[in-house]
C-alpha cells in the first residue's frame, strides 16, 4: 500500500465529491460538488441537512455559505474553522497514519481497502483542526479505499462516543479531472 501511495502523482486535481454523515439510519448531512485535492482543499458544494440546503464555496482562506436559491450576502468563515472530521486535504498522510497504527489491508480487487482504529489524538498528528473537531470521540474506526493510481477514492469513519450515538461519515471521490479554479463568490 505504501508503494501505491508513493507512486501517486503529486499534481493537484479535482474530483466529484459526495459526503454523507449519518447517525444510525438518519442522514444528518449530504454534501455534493467538485473539490480540488492534492492541494489546499477548495471547491464548490451543496450541503443539505434536515433544516437547510446551502451553497458552499471553499477557497484557500475562507468558506462562503448561503441558502440555496437566495441572492443575499454570503456568510464567511475562516477555512480552518470549516474543517470536519476527515483530513480531506491530507488523504495520503491519513492513509499512512492508518498503516502506522496496525491497519489491515484488503486486496479483494480494486480499489484496495485499508482499515484501522484511531483516536482523535492520532488524527491530530495529521491535521490539528480535524483532530480537535473529533475530540469528543472515544475512537474512530477508519476505512480508506485507494485506487491503482494511488488516489484515495473513498473514506468511511465510524465515530464512537462515550454516551452519544455513533456517527458514520462516508466521502466518495469520482470523476477525476484537472484542478478547477475556485474564487470567492461575487458580492450580491
Explain what the structure shows.
With 188 residues, this protein is mainly beta. The protein is 14% helix and 47% strand. The protein is built from four helices and eleven strands, in the order αββββββαββααβββ. It has helices at 2-7, 91-100, 120-124, 128-133; strands spanning 13-23, 26-37, 42-48, 53-58, 62-67, 75-78, 104-106, 112-118, 137-146, 152-161, 167-178. It has an eleven-stranded antiparallel beta sheet. Strand 1 (13-23) and strand 2 form a beta hairpin. The relative contact order is 0.21. The model has no long low-confidence stretch (mean pLDDT 91).
How far apart are the first and last residues' alpha carbons, in Å?
47 Å
What sequence of helices (H) and strands (E) makes up the elements? HEEEEEEHEEHHEEE
Backbone CA Rg: 17 Å
Low-confidence spans? none
Q: Which term fits the overall shape?
A: globular
Structural class: mainly beta
The total of helices stands at 4
How much of the sequence lies in strands comes to over 45%
Largest sheet: 11 strands, antiparallel
| Strand adjacency order, main sheet | 6-5-4-3-2-1-11-10-9-8-7
Mean pLDDT: 91
Relative helix content = 10-25%
| Total beta strands | 11
How do you describe this structure in short?
The chain is mainly beta. It has 4 helices and 11 strands.
Topology (elements, then pairings):
Blueprint: H1 2-7, E1 13-23, E2 26-37, E3 42-48, E4 53-58, E5 62-67, E6 75-78, H2 91-100, E7 104-106, E8 112-118, H3 120-124, H4 128-133, E9 137-146, E10 152-161, E11 167-178
Antiparallel strand pairs: 1-2, 1-11, 2-3, 3-4, 4-5, 5-6, 7-8, 8-9, 9-10, 10-11
Amino acid at each position: 500500500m505504501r508503494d501505491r501511495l508513493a507512486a501517486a502523482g503529486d499534481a493537484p486535481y479535482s474530483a466529484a465529491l459526495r459526503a454523507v454523515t449519518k447517525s444510525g439510519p438518519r442522514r444528518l448531512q449530504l454534501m455534493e460538488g467538485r473539490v480540488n485535492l492534492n492541494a489546499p482543499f477548495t471547491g464548490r458544494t451543496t450541503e443539505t441537512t434536515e433544516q437547510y440546503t446551502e451553497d458552499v464555496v471553499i477557497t484557500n482562506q475562507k468558506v462562503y455559505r448561503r441558502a440555496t436559491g437566495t441572492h443575499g450576502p454570503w456568510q464567511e468563515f475562516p477555512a480552518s474553522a470549516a474543517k470536519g472530521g476527515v483530513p480531506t486535504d491530507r488523504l495520503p498522510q491519513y492513509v499512512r497514519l492508518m498503516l502506522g497504527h496496525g491497519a489491515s489491508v484488503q486486496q479483494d480487487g480494486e480499489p484496495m481497502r485499508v482499515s484501522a482504529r484511531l483516536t482523535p489524538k492520532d488524527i491530530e498528528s495529521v491535521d490539528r483542526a480535524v483532530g480537535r473537531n473529533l475530540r469528543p470521540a472515544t475512537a474512530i474506526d477508519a476505512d480508506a479505499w485507494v485506487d491503482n493510481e494511488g488516489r484515495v477514492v473513498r473514506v468511511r469513519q465510524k465515530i464512537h462516543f462515550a454516551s452519544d450515538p455513533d456517527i458514520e461519515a462516508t466521502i466518495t471521490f469520482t470523476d477525476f479531472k484537472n484542478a478547477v479554479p475556485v474564487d470567492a463568490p461575487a458580492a450580491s
